[in-house]
Specification:
12 helices, mainly alpha, 9 strands, single chain, binds heme C, two-stranded antiparallel ribbon, 8% strand, 43% helix, three-stranded mixed beta sheet, 261 residues, Cytochrome Bc1 Complex, Chain D, domain 2
């Protein structure tokens, strides 16, 4: 006998009312941060720099930011000590369209590009701990900035592709992201409240996993629960999903590192 009873019940409980609910007119949704669904204890932990375990990842990124690469330069050589010369409003607008690459560039993609081309490597894997630390540090600089992703023009098709993925039914469980994170947002099941699945707290600290994770890693967590095959961290699918998800959260404040379930 499988020990999947809890999650099976969970999905079963969710599947039942879906037919009726999905038939109702698609309702526009104001973005709400995952923070608003947390317990007061977890909210308090997030906003306390000393109590927030995600800050360890940010701090590791800060050290890495001023560590020299193969050409003797560090990130700080160009972007200032502590990243003070980075444009934090622009950080809040990632993914952006790269005219050079002719595709969207996520914040992590931009950091890895600088790592390769501007400090001469060593190359960091897209899903490496080092990339996560740098991304967490850079995004933390934009704490409290308003998420503002421009999905017009060249970005439009990627946004649409991400939106389609968000509405695709996944895995053996056969449920789409939006069914849980739009229609069932706010519903509680065994102590876990379904949020809108927003990305403004990421990279963030997953309490249940006991570690910091990026947006792609968080999506992988949901796909695993749906028993669907996850994509590689730098896959086109995850980039498109990040374009859609970040833009869907336009207007929210960046909370990196959020504390989340
Ligand atoms: C030799 C100078 C140089 C170094 C060293 C460098 N960068 Fe950059 N970085 C740039 C330039 C120039 C841009 C502007 C974007 C572009 O045109 O590619 C940029 C853009 C960025 C951005 C986007 C900021 C924005 O406003 O869009 C981030 C984030 C960033 N770099 C992070 C890093 C990190 C992390 C490192 C270390 C791994 C690093 N950079 C090393 C020159 C540098
Ligand atoms: C069966 C329901 C279900 C489905 C379907 C689902 N998720 Fe989730 N997801 C959860 C639960 C439960 C959590 C943890 C509680 C919360 O924040 O909703 C979560 C959390 C998240 C979070 C973190 C939000 C935050 O602020 O902490 C993101 C991002 C996310 N999901 C994205 C996705 C994406 C993308 C998909 C589709 C590929 C998806 N989810 C499909 C149940 C689901």
């Amino acid at each position: 006998m499988k020990i999947l009873t809890l999650s099976n019940c969970f999905f079963f409980a969710l599947t039942l009312p879906l037919t009726t609910i999905t038939l109702s007119a698609a309702h526009a949704q104001q973005p709400v941060s995952g923070y608003d669904y947390l317990t007061p204890e977890m909210q308090e932990m997030q906003i306390d720099d000393f109590g927030n375990p995600g800050m360890l990842t940010v701090d590791a990124g800060e050290i890495r930011f001023s560590t020299a690469g193969k050409n003797g330069k560090s990130c700080a050589s160009c972007h200032g000590d502590d990243g003070s010369k980075l444009d934090i409003k622009h950080i809040a607008s990632y993914p952006v369209y790269s005219t050079a690459l002719k595709k969207p560039l996520t914040l992590r993609g931009q950091i890895l590009l600088c790592q390769d081309e501007r400090i001469g490597g060593p190359s960091l894997g897209h899903s490496s701990a080092e990339a996560l630390q740098l991304e967490a540090f850079v995004r933390r600089l934009a704490l409290g900035e308003t998420v503002n992703v421009d999905v017009s023009g060249e970005m439009a098709p990627y946004y649409e592709a991400g939106k389609n993925l968000f509405h695709t039914r996944w895995g053996q469980v056969d449920i789409a992201c939006h069914q849980c994170h739009v229609y069932h947002a706010g519903r509680t099941f065994r102590g876990q409240t379904l949020s809108q699945g927003q990305s403004n707290g990421f990279p963030g600290y997953r309490y249940t996993a006991g570690k910091a994770v990026s947006t792609p890693e968080r999506i992988t967590g949901c796909l695993a629960n749906l028993r669907a095959e996850p994509y590689a961290s730098d896959s086109v699918e995850y980039i498109n999903l990040e374009v859609y998800m970040n833009a869907r959260g336009n207007g929210l404040k960046i909370e990196t590192p959020g504390i989340r379930y």
